[in-house]
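Known limitations

Structure tokens in this collection are predictions and should be treated as such. Users comparing against experimental data should check residue numbering before alignment. To illustrate the layout, the record for Sulfoxide reductase catalytic subunit YedY is reproduced below. The input appears on top and the generated tokens appear beneath it.
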Amino acid sequence: MIGLGAGGIAVGASLQTGVNRALAPVRGLGDVLPAAGGFRYYSVVGSVRERTADEYRLAVSGMVGRTRAFTIPELGALKQTQVTRDFQCVTGWRVPGVAWAGVALPDLLDAVGASPEATAVRFRSFDGVYSESLTMEQARRPDVLIATRMLGGPVTHDHGGPVRLFVAPMYGYKSLKWLGAIEVTDKVVSGYWERRGYDVDAWVGRSNGRDDEPT
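Generated tokens:
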């Protein structure tokens, strides 16, 4: 029994060391929830107040012809695009073949009349802290979505809903959750994790593990 107890302590210590190493790249997260369907739920601020579909607004401003505050029905009235891609986190975990749907960012930019002089797009989360940016060339890709649906249903709060960003060819930290505002700008502004040492251009691969085309 003493031997088994000592062995358990040794194994437990080894497991804890492995967990600590696995979480080392994401130190500073306010909340790391257990896996569900292969996903890990991260938040840099801990609890984020849920917004209902009725109260949600997506503010689009900056170098645009028309400032807008889109409701979810208004987003749904725009051309819809479907994309199936793997979701790859920079910490190493991956969920294959996730089905996403929503408004392709190029279509949203056209709807507000993004200025041809603009060179970047900035995104802000309604958690009040998280932000991200893309170059205009990156933002104009057809596989960058203002996602309102995933896995066959609305984007849930834990997944960053009711509306989130999905940047198919880049690591998950570029796919900002709880999307609240978009600003069309003349420069790339480093986001939350870029200011903490992560790459500004977070390419995973040519098509993030799949060759499916958006529809």
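For this record: The chain is about 20% helix and 30% strand. Residues 8 and 44 are 34 Å apart (CA to CA). Please report discrepancies through the issue tracker.
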